[in-house]
């Protein structure tokens, strides 16, 4: 209740609509993976800022990608950091429309990146750009879809080695239990040591998270 009230207050302050939890069943979805997707719930500001402290501070030049970007809360939070570009990938048309409208309206004096966009696509069909990357997942979908996205990311990094961090967050679905071994088994990512997530009042659910860095084979 408190977290939801804080989310709505954050929305009013920034003139956007990101709060609430939205079931996918009623939404118009692109691609064949509707039944594998999880409901749209946002990452909280304090959760996001805590995660960002685990990443190197020199991320200028990196592109931040939120896989399953919902109504864009995480894209907006990321825009307060000096990323070169911020991209959301979302397969639910209604959420893409709300996200694009939020991006236009968002006002925050601490905003550092204004190159924000949302790609309407099934994440399994998304081709990663050739830039250095921070790829963010918050519980978007089941393991079979994640395996496809991870394989696409690995191919992209093998074709063009570059800096890449993966942040994987999960809450109620305990997805971290299968995501962590899947990322390790890819054989090209090293897990960074990160502090446990505190229980923030503004978080609908506390996120367990893991951060990985790409290490090109020697
Ligand atoms: C738990 S929400 C995360 C929202 C946002 N990333 C955040 O942290 O605030 C998961 C989102 O993933 C989207 N999603 C699920 N499966 C997808 C897929 N195959 N392709 C693209 N988006 C997907 C859902 O529509 C939902 O908006």
Automatic annotation (TrEMBL):
User: Which GO biological process categories is it annotated with?
Assistant: methylation
Q: What is this protein called?
A: SAM-dependent methyltransferase
Give the keywords, sorted.
Methyltransferase, Transferase
Query: What GO molecular functions are on record for this protein?
Result: methyltransferase activity
Q: Whose protein is this, by species?
A: Mesorhizobium kowhaii
Specify the superkingdom. Bacteria
């Amino acid at each position: 209740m408190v977290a939801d009230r804080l989310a709505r207050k954050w929305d009013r302050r920034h003139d956007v609509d990101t709060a609430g939890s939205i079931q996918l069943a009623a939404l118009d979805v692109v691609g064949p993976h509707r039944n594998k997707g999880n409901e749209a719930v946002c990452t909280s500001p304090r959760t996001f800022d805590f995660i960002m402290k685990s990443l190197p501070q020199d991320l200028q030049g990196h592109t931040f990608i939120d896989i399953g970007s919902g109504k864009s809360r995480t894209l907006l939070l990321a825009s307060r950091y000096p990323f070169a570009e911020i991209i959301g990938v979302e397969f639910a048309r209604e959420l893409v429309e709300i996200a694009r409208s939020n991006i236009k309206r968002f006002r925050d004096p601490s905003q550092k990146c204004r190159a924000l966009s949302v790609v309407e696509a099934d994440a399994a069909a998304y081709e990663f750009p050739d830039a250095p990357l921070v790829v963010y997942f918050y519980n978007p979908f089941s393991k079979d879809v994640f395996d496809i996205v991870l394989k696409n990311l690995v191919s992209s990094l093998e074709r063009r080695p570059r800096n890449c961090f993966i942040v994987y967050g999960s809450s109620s679905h305990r997805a971290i239990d299968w995501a962590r071994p899947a990322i390790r088994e890819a054989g090209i990512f090293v897990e960074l040591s990160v502090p446990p997530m505190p229980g923030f009042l503004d978080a609908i659910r506390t996120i367990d998270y893991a951060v990985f860095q790409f290490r090109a084979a020697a």
